[in-house]
C-alpha cells in the first residue's frame, strides 16, 4: 500500500530537497518554453538551494508561506505565496502565489490543490503569473478559482499571463 501524500509547512532543512524539486519540475514544465541554457545551467540547483535557504530562514521573507508535498518521505511538490509584488496589484489582493510545482508523475493526485490551500487562505483574494502557453497549468488554476485578468508580461523570454482569484 502506498502512503498518502502529506502536505506540511516547509522547514529550513527542506531547502536542498525543495531546490531539486524546483529545478527538476522546471525542466519537466518549461523545456521548449524556456532557454535550455537556463534549465541546464550547472549551478541551477545550487542557486535554487540558496534561494530556498533564504526564503525559509531570512526574516525579510517572514510574511511568505511555503509548503511541501511529501510521498513516502520524499518531497514531490512545493509552493510559496507572499505579499503581492505587482506595482499595479489590486488593493483587494492580499497574497500572490509565487510558485507551485509538483512532479508530473503526481499531477492529478490533488497535491497541487492541497498545496495552494496550504499557502493561501480559503477566502484570500490572490494573484499569480503563469507561463503562456501552458494550458495544463492554466486549467489547473481555473479549477482552483483563478481567472486571467488580461495582464501579460515577458520574463526571461517567457510570456506570462496574470490570473486572479476573488475571496471565495
UniProtKB/TrEMBL annotation:
Residues 5-168 form the N-acetyltransferase domain. The keyword Chloroplast does not apply. Keywords: Acyltransferase, Transferase. It comes from the Bacteria. GO terms for molecular function: acyltransferase activity. InterPro entries: Acyl_CoA_acyltransferase, Bact_Acetyltransf, GNAT_dom. It is an enzyme of class 2 (transferase). Its EC number is 2.3.1.-. The keyword Zinc-finger does not apply. PANTHER family: ACETYLTRANSFERASE, AMINOALKYLPHOSPHONATE N-ACETYLTRANSFERASE-RELATED-RELATED. This is GNAT family N-acetyltransferase. It comes from Microbacterium horticulturae.
Amino acid at each position: 500500500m502506498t502512503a498518502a501524500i502529506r502536505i506540511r509547512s516547509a522547514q529550513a532543512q527542506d531547502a536542498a530537497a525543495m531546490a531539486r524539486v524546483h529545478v527538476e519540475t522546471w525542466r519537466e514544465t518549461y523545456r521548449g518554453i524556456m532557454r535550455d541554457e537556463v534549465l541546464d545551467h550547472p549551478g541551477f540547483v545550487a542557486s535554487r538551494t540558496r534561494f530556498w535557504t533564504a526564503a525559509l530562514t531570512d526574516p525579510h521573507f517572514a510574511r511568505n508561506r511555503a509548503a511541501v508535498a511529501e510521498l513516502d518521505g520524499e518531497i514531490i511538490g512545493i509552493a510559496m505565496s507572499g505579499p503581492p509584488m505587482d506595482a499595479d496589484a489590486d488593493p483587494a489582493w492580499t497574497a500572490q502565489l509565487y510558485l507551485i510545482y509538483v512532479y508530473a508523475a503526481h499531477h492529478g493526485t490533488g497535491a497541487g490543490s492541497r498545496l495552494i490551500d496550504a499557502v493561501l487562505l480559503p477566502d484570500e483574494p490572490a494573484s499569480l503569473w503563469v507561463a503562456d502557453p501552458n494550458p495544463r497549468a492554466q486549467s489547473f488554476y481555473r479549477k482552483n478559482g483563478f481567472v486571467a485578468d488580461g495582464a501579460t508580461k515577458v520574463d526571461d523570454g517567457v510570456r506570462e499571463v496574470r490570473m486572479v482569484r476573488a475571496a471565495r
